[in-house]
Amino acid sequence: MKILVVCLGNICRSPLAEGILKSKLPEGFVIDSAGTISLHEGENPDKRATSIAKKHGIDISKQRSRPITTEDFEYFDRIYCMDLSVLEDVISLAKNDEQRAKVSLFLEEAGIEGNNYEVFDPYWSEMDGFEKVYQLLDDASEAIKIKLTSNS
Q1: How far is Cα 14 from Cα 33, in angstroms, rounded to an integer?
Q2: Other CB atoms within 10 Å distance of the CB of residue 44
Q3: 121 belongs to the catalytic site
Q4: Which residue out of 13, 46, 48, 72 is catalytically annotated?
Q5: Is 68 helix (H, G, I), strand (E, B) or coil?
Q6: I need a surface site. Which of 30, 57, 118, 144 has the fewest CB within 10 A?
Q7: pTM for this model (two decimals)
Q8: Which domain holds residue 20?
Protein backbone atom coordinates (compact mmCIF):
# COMPACT_ATOMS: atom_id res chain seq x y z
CA MET A 1 0.00 0.00 0.00
CA LYS A 2 1.20 3.50 -0.86
CA ILE A 3 0.30 6.40 1.45
CA LEU A 4 0.81 10.13 0.92
CA VAL A 5 0.50 12.53 3.87
CA VAL A 6 -0.22 16.17 3.01
CA CYS A 7 -0.04 19.45 4.92
CA LEU A 8 0.36 23.07 3.79
CA GLY A 9 4.10 23.52 3.26
CA ASN A 10 5.41 19.97 3.80
CA ILE A 11 7.92 21.12 6.43
CA CYS A 12 6.21 20.41 9.79
CA ARG A 13 3.21 18.10 10.09
CA SER A 14 3.43 15.85 7.04
CA PRO A 15 7.18 15.16 7.39
CA LEU A 16 6.56 14.15 11.02
CA ALA A 17 3.64 11.93 9.99
CA GLU A 18 5.72 10.38 7.20
CA GLY A 19 8.55 9.57 9.59
CA ILE A 20 6.24 8.18 12.27
CA LEU A 21 4.27 6.03 9.83
CA LYS A 22 7.50 4.67 8.31
CA SER A 23 8.64 3.69 11.81
CA LYS A 24 5.39 1.86 12.57
CA LEU A 25 4.29 0.20 9.34
CA PRO A 26 5.85 -3.04 8.10
CA GLU A 27 7.82 -3.51 4.89
CA GLY A 28 5.72 -3.26 1.78
CA PHE A 29 4.19 0.08 2.73
CA VAL A 30 5.40 3.12 0.80
CA ILE A 31 5.05 6.40 2.69
CA ASP A 32 5.70 9.90 1.32
CA SER A 33 4.61 13.44 2.11
CA ALA A 34 3.81 16.61 0.21
CA GLY A 35 2.39 20.09 0.63
CA THR A 36 -0.37 22.02 -1.07
CA ILE A 37 1.97 24.95 -1.71
CA SER A 38 5.42 24.97 -3.28
CA LEU A 39 6.85 27.78 -1.11
CA HIS A 40 9.33 25.44 0.61
CA GLU A 41 9.98 23.09 -2.33
CA GLY A 42 13.33 21.31 -1.95
CA GLU A 43 13.80 22.42 1.66
CA ASN A 44 14.41 20.14 4.63
CA PRO A 45 11.73 19.87 7.31
CA ASP A 46 11.57 22.68 9.87
CA LYS A 47 14.45 22.31 12.36
CA ARG A 48 11.97 22.06 15.24
CA ALA A 49 10.16 19.15 13.55
CA THR A 50 13.49 17.43 12.87
CA SER A 51 14.53 17.94 16.50
CA ILE A 52 11.27 16.56 17.95
CA ALA A 53 11.41 13.54 15.63
CA LYS A 54 15.05 12.88 16.60
CA LYS A 55 14.11 13.10 20.29
CA HIS A 56 11.73 10.19 19.63
CA GLY A 57 14.26 8.18 17.61
CA ILE A 58 13.03 9.11 14.13
CA ASP A 59 15.24 10.73 11.47
CA ILE A 60 13.35 13.00 9.06
CA SER A 61 16.38 15.16 8.20
CA LYS A 62 16.78 13.77 4.67
CA GLN A 63 13.20 14.51 3.62
CA ARG A 64 12.64 17.34 1.12
CA SER A 65 9.51 19.42 0.72
CA ARG A 66 7.55 19.02 -2.48
CA PRO A 67 4.11 20.04 -3.70
CA ILE A 68 1.40 17.47 -4.34
CA THR A 69 0.86 16.71 -8.03
CA THR A 70 -1.97 15.24 -10.06
CA GLU A 71 0.27 12.21 -10.66
CA ASP A 72 0.14 11.49 -6.92
CA PHE A 73 -3.51 10.50 -7.33
CA GLU A 74 -2.45 7.79 -9.78
CA TYR A 75 0.41 6.45 -7.64
CA PHE A 76 -0.90 6.55 -4.05
CA ASP A 77 -3.67 4.37 -2.62
CA ARG A 78 -4.45 6.72 0.28
CA ILE A 79 -3.91 10.45 0.69
CA TYR A 80 -4.19 11.69 4.28
CA CYS A 81 -4.60 15.43 4.93
CA MET A 82 -3.74 17.32 8.11
CA ASP A 83 -6.62 19.81 8.15
CA LEU A 84 -9.82 20.82 6.37
CA SER A 85 -8.20 23.53 4.25
CA VAL A 86 -5.58 21.08 2.98
CA LEU A 87 -8.32 18.50 2.39
CA GLU A 88 -10.30 20.95 0.24
CA ASP A 89 -7.19 21.90 -1.76
CA VAL A 90 -6.26 18.26 -2.35
CA ILE A 91 -9.79 17.25 -3.35
CA SER A 92 -9.87 20.13 -5.84
CA LEU A 93 -6.96 18.47 -7.68
CA ALA A 94 -8.71 15.11 -8.02
CA LYS A 95 -9.97 14.33 -11.52
CA ASN A 96 -12.79 11.95 -10.58
CA ASP A 97 -14.70 10.25 -7.76
CA GLU A 98 -12.22 7.37 -7.62
CA GLN A 99 -9.38 9.81 -6.90
CA ARG A 100 -11.50 11.81 -4.43
CA ALA A 101 -12.27 8.58 -2.54
CA LYS A 102 -8.54 8.18 -1.77
CA VAL A 103 -8.50 11.46 0.20
CA SER A 104 -9.35 11.76 3.90
CA LEU A 105 -8.29 13.55 7.06
CA PHE A 106 -5.42 11.84 8.91
CA LEU A 107 -7.13 12.02 12.30
CA GLU A 108 -10.49 10.94 10.92
CA GLU A 109 -8.86 7.87 9.37
CA ALA A 110 -7.33 7.15 12.78
CA GLY A 111 -10.66 7.64 14.56
CA ILE A 112 -9.30 10.45 16.74
CA GLU A 113 -11.94 13.12 17.24
CA GLY A 114 -11.49 16.68 18.41
CA ASN A 115 -11.04 20.01 16.67
CA ASN A 116 -12.83 18.78 13.52
CA TYR A 117 -10.22 16.03 13.05
CA GLU A 118 -7.60 18.70 12.35
CA VAL A 119 -3.92 18.62 13.30
CA PHE A 120 -3.00 22.22 14.10
CA ASP A 121 -0.02 23.71 12.30
CA PRO A 122 2.82 24.17 14.84
CA TYR A 123 4.83 26.45 12.53
CA TRP A 124 4.13 29.58 14.60
CA SER A 125 4.50 27.85 17.96
CA GLU A 126 7.38 26.93 20.23
CA MET A 127 8.81 23.44 20.78
CA ASP A 128 5.91 22.45 23.03
CA GLY A 129 3.57 22.89 20.05
CA PHE A 130 5.72 20.55 17.99
CA GLU A 131 5.76 18.02 20.83
CA LYS A 132 1.95 18.11 21.05
CA VAL A 133 1.68 17.60 17.29
CA TYR A 134 4.19 14.75 17.46
CA GLN A 135 2.20 12.99 20.19
CA LEU A 136 -1.06 13.43 18.28
CA LEU A 137 0.48 12.12 15.05
CA ASP A 138 2.09 9.22 16.93
CA ASP A 139 -1.25 8.19 18.44
CA ALA A 140 -2.98 8.53 15.07
CA SER A 141 -0.24 6.60 13.28
CA GLU A 142 -0.57 3.74 15.74
CA ALA A 143 -4.34 3.61 15.12
CA ILE A 144 -3.81 3.72 11.34
CA LYS A 145 -1.19 0.96 11.58
CA ILE A 146 -3.62 -1.28 13.45
CA LYS A 147 -6.39 -0.51 10.96
CA LEU A 148 -4.26 -1.11 7.86
CA THR A 149 -2.37 -4.17 9.05
CA SER A 150 -5.45 -5.93 10.41
CA ASN A 151 -7.20 -5.53 7.03
CA SER A 152 -4.35 -6.95 4.97
Answers
A1: 6
A2: 16
A3: yes
A4: 13
A5: coil
A6: 57
A7: 0.97
A8: 2-150
- Concerning whether 128 is annotated as a catalytic residue, the answer is no
Alpha carbon 68 to its chain's center? 12
- 34 three-state secondary structure: strand
Residue type, position 119, single letter = V
User: How many domains is the chain built from?
Assistant: 1
What CATH number is associated with residue 26? 3.40.50.2300
H helices of the chain, in order, are: 13-24, 47-55, 70-75, 84-93, 97-100, 106-110, 127-150
